Give the backbone structure.
Amino acid sequence: MNIIGIKELQTNPGKLSKSFSNNEYMLITRRGKPVGVALPFSSGLMEHGLQPWMALKAFQSGDLSLGQLAASLQKSKVETIEMLGQLNIPVADYDLQEDLDAVEKLLAS
């Protein structure tokens, strides 16, 4: 999630369009306090509704855990995992090579 202050948004509106181009949402703040959210228009927004769509985007970007997403959607974790599978959203996102490198480093010690 990107965060931008009102003054910065006024002087650099290109940041907002860049965020939209990257299919990201942006939290808009005034004096450090949230005042709004700007998000790109997409078919997902219309099909799934704003609140669930925002929660899914926050989960994808790592801002919400699986448990927080499930609570937000008022579903069990199992139901949420099933829904993520239907939407082709990975439940876990990690780099296998990074893990293998870490194990190799530990074994070399």
The longest helix spans residues 96-108. The chain has a mean pLDDT of 86.
